């Protein structure tokens, strides 16, 4: 008899243990990997069971029972608030509950658009103009060395690849974002860093490693490309041209780096400009500058990883149209300068 009781106790522990681990898995995992945004509405007066049914119908959760159990265990039945919320299928169940009980609906959000090639200072000015954050506070926070990490949110893993003395310049991903009207500087930065981590695919990271290059090198190159040309096809050619210069021990001679140093864009820079004493001066120094000169978009990053070697050695951008004009010889380049930059 004692043996039977012992067996029953063991079975009970196994079942309880299995249930516990299943419960933890269900509440801490999403219903797939799709991060496409889905607008989900909670109507005034809707009960938890109705909300669960609607979430299951939209494939945002994979278990109605575990949803209801989690809500009951957390005593959140009365905390759901009416409104439209942005969810996705990759969100863990507990995250979805947190959002739906937070009251932070879309109506309380604001849309911002960060442009490719903006620097931290540009982003800071824009956010202050939009009435979201203070320019000085955002700049100070984003420009701090990553070694100090002054944020409450966890450091994304890619940050460990950045030199400790570097700022977040280059890694604040340009995109259109929805943020809460009461967002602070850190929450905006967190959203941009998470987006960078998301957009840089595993395949891209693997290809960077295969090339024997580092993430900071790629982002630095991408930041220059972003400021030099607009079209993706041109970006790839310019990338090939610049990587060839580095391979051949030549200076990059990028006007974008002079604009970064001087803080002003010119159709054509003077000899004196090219002699400025700065580690970012790619006319005087060979190789890449110490770090990114802007925050590049996805096309510029992809161009830096996947360059096109088209046999060109020089290029310029027409001030009137923005068109990139390539040349294979120095004489041809001089003729193009006289034609388009005079």
Can you offer a commentary on this structure?
The structure is a single chain. The chain is mainly α. The protein folds into three domains: 18-104, Endolytic murein transglycosylase (Dna Ligase, domain 1); 108-199, 2-Layer Sandwich (Dna Ligase, domain 1), CATH 3.30.1490.480; 206-340, no CATH class. 46% of the residues lie in helices and 8% in strands. It has 14 helices and six strands. A two-stranded antiparallel sheet has the order 1-2. The chain has a two-stranded antiparallel ribbon with strand order 3-4. Helix 2 packs antiparallel against helix 3 (64-73), helix 9 (215-228) packs across helix 13 (298-305) and helix 10 (232-247) crosses helix 13 (298-305).
Tell me the layout of helices and strands.
Layout: H1 2-28, E1 38-42, H2 48-57, H3 64-73, E2 83-87, H4 93-100, E3 109-113, H5 120-129, H6 135-142, E4 176-180, H7 185-199, H8 202-210, H9 215-228, H10 232-247, H11 255-262, H12 271-274, H13 298-305, E5 314-317, E6 324-327, H14 330-340
Antiparallel strand pairs: 1-2, 3-4, 5-6
Helix pairs in contact: 2-3, 5-6, 9-10, 9-13, 10-13
Q: Keyphrases for this structure?
A:
342 residues, mainly alpha, Dna Ligase, domain 1, 3 domains, two-stranded antiparallel sheet, 8% strand, lytic endotransglycosylase activity, lyase, transmembrane helix, membrane, EC 4.2.2.29
Oligomer: single chain
The helix fraction, in percent, is: 40-55%
User: Mind summarizing the main beta sheet?
Assistant: 2 strands, antiparallel
Distance between the termini: 102 Å
Question: Number of folding domains?
Answer: 3
What is the chain-wise order of helices and strands?
HEHHEHEHHEHHHHHHHEEH
């Amino acid at each position: 008899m004692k043996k039977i009781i012992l067996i029953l106790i063991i079975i009970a522990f196994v079942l309880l243990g299995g249930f516990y681990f299943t419960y933890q898995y269900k509440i801490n995992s999403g219903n797939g990997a799709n991060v496409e945004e889905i607008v989900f509405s909670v109507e005034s007066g809707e009960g938890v069971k109705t909300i669960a049914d609607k979430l299951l119908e939209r494939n945002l959760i994979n278990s109605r029972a575990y949803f209801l159990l989690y809500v009951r265990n957390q005593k959140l039945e009365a905390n759901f608030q009416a409104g439209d919320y942005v969810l996705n299928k990759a969100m863990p169940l507990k995250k979805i509950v947190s959002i739906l009980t937070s009251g932070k609906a879309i109506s309380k959000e604001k849309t911002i658009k960060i442009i490719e090639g903006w620097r931290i200072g540009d982003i800071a000015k824009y956010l202050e103009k939009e009435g979201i954050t203070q320019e000085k506070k955002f700049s100070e926070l984003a420009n701090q060395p990553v070694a100090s990490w002054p944020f409450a949110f966890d450091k994304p893993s890619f940050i460990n690849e950045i030199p400790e003395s570097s700022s977040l310049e280059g890694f604040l991903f340009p995109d259109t974002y929805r943020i809460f009207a009461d967002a602070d500087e850190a929450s905006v930065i967190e959203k941009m860093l998470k987006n960078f981590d998301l957009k840089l695919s595993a395949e891209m990271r693997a290809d960077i490693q295969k090339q024997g290059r580092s993430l900071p090198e790629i982002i630095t190159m991408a930041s220059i490309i972003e400021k030099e040309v607009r079209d993706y096809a041109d970006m790839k050619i310019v990338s090939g041209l610049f990587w060839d210069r580095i391979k051949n021990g030549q200076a990059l001679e990028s006007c974008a780096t002079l604009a970064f140093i001087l803080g002003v864009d010119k159709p054509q820079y003077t000899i004196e400009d090219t002699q400025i004493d700065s580690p970012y001066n790619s006319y005087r120094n060979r190789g890449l500058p110490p770090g990114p000169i802007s925050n590049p978009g996805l096309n510029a990053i992809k161009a830096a990883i996947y360059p096109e070697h088209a046999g060109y050695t020089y290029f310029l951008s027409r001030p009137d149209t923005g068109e990139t004009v390539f040349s294979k010889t120095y004489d041809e380049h001089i003729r193009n300068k006289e034609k388009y930059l005079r």
